[in-house]
TrEMBL record:
Region described as Disordered: spans on this chain: 1-26, 334-364
TM spans (from-to): none
GO biological process: protein import into nucleus; ribosomal large subunit biogenesis
Alphabetized Pfam families for the sequence: TPR_SYO1
Compositional bias segments (type: Basic and acidic residues): 339-350
Source species of the chain: Fistulifera solaris
InterPro entries with a match to the protein in the record: ARM-like (IPR011989), ARM-type_fold (IPR016024), SYO1-like (IPR052616), TPR_SYO1 (IPR057990)
Molecular-function GO term, any one: unfolded protein binding
Stated name of the protein: SYO1-like TPR repeats domain-containing protein
Family membership: Belongs to the nuclear import and ribosome assembly adapter family.
Residue ranges occupied by any SYO1-like TPR repeats domain in the UniProt entry: 420-676
Length: 680
C-alpha cells in the first residue's frame, strides 16, 4: 500500500506542471552523451535527433560539448544535426535567445577546424579517406545551417556580430573560403547544400542591415572577398546559391549608393548586369511541365488522404471491438452469416488486387518525396521574386530628408545610380518577364474542381508565388517611369489581366497582393491611361469583389480603388459611367461596409470608407442630391466617434496606422463642420 501511494503521489507531481514543454530526458541520456565509448555517444545523439526540438538544458549542454569533439567527427556531425533541429523550433520563443546567442563563436571555431582539415587534405599535407572527408563536409554544412537559424531568428546573435568586427571578418572569410574549397565528385551534392546554406547566411546577414555591411566594408580583406564572391557567382552551378549571392551583392550595392565606398578595380555595373541576367533566367515558368507536376501531386495527395482515412477507420474498428469484448462464438457466427450473404449476392465483374503492407506504404512515401521535390524546385523562383521585389522598390527619387545644400552631391549621385539600375532592369527585360510570369501563375488552375482538394502545402506555395509576382508587377509599374526612358508596357492590357487574375488566386496573401498591385497601377503614371479606358463593367467588377472578399486588407484596397475611379471620373467631362445611379450604388455600398466595420471594431475599413467619401463628396458639385438622400452627414456624425473608439481598441496596430487613422478621424470631424456650414 505504501509503495502504491508513493507512485500515485509521483504521478500527481508529474502531471502538476503541464506548462513545461521541454523533454526531461534525465541523467541517463547525459551519461550516455559523456560516455567514453564514441559508439555509445553516437547512438545517444542519433536517438536525440528525433526529439531535439525540445531538450533539457543539461542535455543541450552535453550535445554542445559533443559538437566541439575533434577526435570523432561522426559524433560532432550528429551533434550539429541535433542543435540545428533545436534552433529551427526553439528560436520562435524569446526564452532561448540568450542561451543560444553565444553559439556563434563555437560554430565559427568548428567551421574553421573543418576548413583547415579539408584544405590540408586537398594540399596533400594530410591523408584523409573519402568517408572522413564526407563527414567533415557534412559537419560543416550542418554548422552553416545552425548559423543561418541564429542569424535569421536570434537578434541577440546578430548583436554579437555587430559588436565584434573580428567575428564578422571571420564569418565572411570562412564563407568565401568554403565557396572555393575543392571537393570530389562523390561529395558534390553535399557541397552544393553547404554552398546554399553559407550563401544564405551571407544574404541574411546583409539583408536590410547597413550597420553590418558598413563594419565589414572597412576590413582589409573586403576587395579580395568581393572578387571571390563574383567569381563564385559566375562559375557555380547551384542556382539557389547564386541567387543568395545576388541578394547579398544587391544589398551591398544598395548600401554603396548612400555611403562612400571606393570600388578600386571592381566594376559594379558589370556585376549588377550579370546578376540581373541570372535573375531573368530564373524568372520562368514551364507551364506544361508544372501542370503535369501539380496534377501528379494532387493524385498522390488524394491517395495519401485515403490511406489516412483507412487508418483512422481501422483504429476505430479495433477500438470498438475491444469495447464490445464480443465472445469468440458470436464472432464466428456473425462471420459465417456474413459469408452466406456474400455468396448469395451477385458477384462484381471487377477483380480486387491484393496489396501487402509494404505496397500500402508506398503512396505515402511517394507523396512526401514528391512534395519535397516540388518545394525544392520552387524555391529558386521564390527567391528570385523576392530579390526582384527588393530591387524594383529600391528605385526611388531623391530622399525628402536630403534637401540641404551640402547634400546636393549625394542627391545627384544617388539619382544617377537609380537611373542606372532602372536602365539595367529595362535592358535585361526583367519587367516583361515578370508580367509573363504573372500570366502563367494566375491561370484559372485553382478554380478547377480537380484541384480544389489540393494539399495546403501546394496551394500555399502557389499563393506565395502569386503574391510575390503581383508585388513585383506593382513595384515595376510604379518605379520604372522616367522622363528619359520608361517601361513600355500596355497599361490597359495589364489592368485587364490583373482583373482576370482575381478569379485564379490560390490563397489570402495572393488576393491581397493582387489588389495592392492594382492600387499601385491606378496611382502610377500609367493610371491615367487605365482610367481613360474604364467602363461601367470595371466599377461593377470592383463592387462585386468588395462583396465577395473576406479579407480586411483586400477590402481596404478595393475601397481605395473605387475612390480613385469616382474622383477622377467626376473631374472629366462626359465620363459615361459615373451616373447618379452608379454614384448612389457605390456610396450605399461604402456606407454599409462602414456600418459593418463599426460593429466589428475594424478601424481599417471604417477609416478607408471615411477617406474615400470625403474625397468624392468634398467637391460640393458631386451629386449633392445623393449626399442628402443617403443622409451622408448623419452617417459621419454617427460613426466618427465609433472610429475613435475603434482606434482606441486597436492593440495590434502599428504606430503609423494609428497616426493615419487619427488623422482621418480629425479630417472627418472637420468635414462634418464644413458640410454643416455649406448646408446653411
Amino acid at each position: 500500500m505504501g509503495k502504491n501511494t508513493k507512485r500515485k503521489h509521483r504521478r500527481k507531481q508529474q502531471l502538476g506542471n503541464p506548462q513545461d514543454e521541454r523533454v526531461h530526458e534525465g541523467p541517463s541520456i547525459v551519461a550516455k552523451l559523456r560516455h567514453n565509448d564514441p559508439k555509445m555517444r553516437h547512438a545517444a545523439l542519433a536517438a536525440l535527433v528525433h526529439i531535439s526540438s525540445k531538450m533539457h538544458p543539461t542535455t543541450l549542454q552535453a550535445v554542445r560539448d559533443q559538437l566541439m569533439d575533434r577526435t570523432h567527427t561522426e559524433c560532432a556531425s550528429m551533434a550539429a544535426a541535433c542543435l540545428s533541429n533545436f534552433l529551427a523550433f526553439s528560436l520562435e520563443k524569446d526564452d532561448f535567445h540568450a542561451l543560444t546567442a553565444g553559439w556563434v563563436l563555437l560554430l565559427v571555431e568548428r567551421l574553421r577546424d573543418c576548413y583547415q582539415q579539408i584544405e590540408s587534405s586537398n594540399n596533400g599535407a594530410t591523408i584523409l579517406s573519402s568517408t572522413q572527408l564526407y563527414l567533415l563536409w557534412e559537419l560543416a554544412e550542418r554548422c552553416w545551417t545552425c548559423l543561418v537559424h541564429l542569424v535569421e531568428n536570434n537578434p541577440l546573435a546578430m548583436e554579437r556580430l555587430l559588436r565584434s568586427a573580428s567575428l564578422q571578418q571571420d564569418v565572411t572569410q570562412l564563407l568565401v573560403s568554403f565557396l572555393h574549397l575543392k571537393c570530389s565528385v562523390d561529395h558534390q551534392t553535399l557541397v552544393d547544400a553547404l554552398h546554399t546554406m553559407a550563401t544564405r547566411c551571407l544574404h541574411s546577414m546583409w539583408d536590410d542591415n547597413g550597420d553590418l555591411i558598413a563594419s565589414w566594408a572597412v576590413t582589409p580583406t573586403v576587395y579580395q572577398s568581393l572578387e571571390l564572391l563574383i567569381s563564385f557567382l559566375r562559375d557555380t552551378a547551384s542556382t539557389t546559391a547564386r541567387l543568395h549571392v545576388i541578394g547579398a551583392w544587391c544589398s551591398f550595392w544598395s548600401w554603396t549608393q548612400q555611403n562612400s565606398f571606393q570600388w578600386g578595380t571592381l566594376q559594379p555595373s558589370i556585376v549588377l548586369h550579370d546578376c540581373l541576367t541570372i535573375l531573368r533566367q530564373t524568372l520562368v515558368w514551364d507551364a506544361p511541365a508544372r501542370a503535369l507536376q501539380i496534377a501528379h501531386l494532387v493524385t498522390l495527395y488524394r491517395t495519401h488522404q485515403k490511406e489516412e482515412a483507412d487508418e483512422v477507420l481501422e483504429k476505430q474498428i479495433v477500438s470498438d471491438q475491444q469495447k464490445k469484448k464480443e465472445p469468440a462464438k458470436l464472432i464466428a457466427r456473425r462471420l459465417k452469416e456474413k459469408r452466406k450473404q456474400d455468396e448469395n449476392r451477385p458477384k462484381d465483374t471487377t477483380t480486387e488486387i491484393p496489396t501487402d503492407s509494404a505496397m500500402q506504404e508506398e503512396p505515402s512515401l511517394d507523396w512526401e518525396s514528391a512534395l519535397d521535390q516540388w518545394l525544392s524546385s520552387i524555391r529558386p523562383l521564390q527567391l528570385a521574386l523576392e530579390i526582384t521585389a527588393n530591387l524594383s522598390i529600391g528605385i526611388s527619387t531623391t530622399s525628402d530628408d536630403a534637401t540641404e545644400d551640402g547634400d546636393e552631391l549625394m542627391i545627384d549621385s544617388h539619382t544617377s545610380m537609380n537611373a542606372e539600375l532602372r536602365q539595367l532592369l529595362l535592358d535585361t527585360s526583367i519587367p516583361d518577364c515578370i508580367v509573363e510570369l504573372m500570366r502563367h501563375l494566375y491561370q484559372p488552375l485553382w478554380s478547377d474542381a480537380s484541384t480544389q482538394d489540393a494539399a495546403v502545402a501546394i496551394r500555399s506555395t502557389i499563393g506565395d508565388l502569386q503574391s510575390k509576382v503581383a508585388v513585383c508587377v506593382g513595384h515595376c509599374v510604379t518605379s520604372l517611369q522616367d522622363d528619359h526612358r520608361s517601361w513600355n508596357v500596355d497599361a490597359v492590357a495589364l489592368w485587364n489581366h490583373l482583373t482576370q487574375a482575381s478569379q485564379a488566386v490560390a490563397d489570402e496573401n495572393a488576393t491581397e497582393s493582387l489588389f495592392a498591385s492594382m492600387v499601385m497601377a491606378l496611382q502610377s503614371a500609367k493610371g491615367n491611361a487605365i482610367l481613360h479606358s474604364f467602363e461601367l463593367k470595371d466599377v461593377e467588377f470592383l463592387l462585386h469583389q468588395l462583396k465577395l472578399t473576406k479579407f480586411t486588407v483586400g477590402a481596404r484596397d478595393l475601397i481605395c480603388m473605387l475612390g480613385i475611379i469616382l474622383c477622377s471620373s467626376f473631374e472629366r467631362d462626359g465620363f459615361r459611367y459615373h451616373t447618379s445611379e452608379v454614384n448612389e450604388t457605390v456610396a450605399q455600398t461604402l456606407i454599409d461596409m462602414g456600418t459593418s466595420a463599426a460593429e466589428r471594431h475594424s478601424a481599417v475599413i471604417l477609416s478607408e470608407t471615411f477617406r474615400v467619401l470625403m474625397d468624392v463628396y468634398g467637391n460640393d458639385d458631386c451629386h449633392p442630391r445623393i449626399f442628402d438622400s443617403l443622409n451622408m452627414l448623419g452617417y459621419f456624425q454617427k460613426y466618427v466617434p465609433a472610429l475613435k473608439q475603434c482606434i482606441h481598441l486597436s492593440r495590434d496596430a502599428s504606430p503609423d496606422e494609428i497616426r493615419q487613422w487619427k488623422e482621418t478621424a480629425s479630417n472627418a470631424s472637420r468635414f462634418i463642420q464644413y458640410k454643416k456650414g455649406y448646408g446653411n
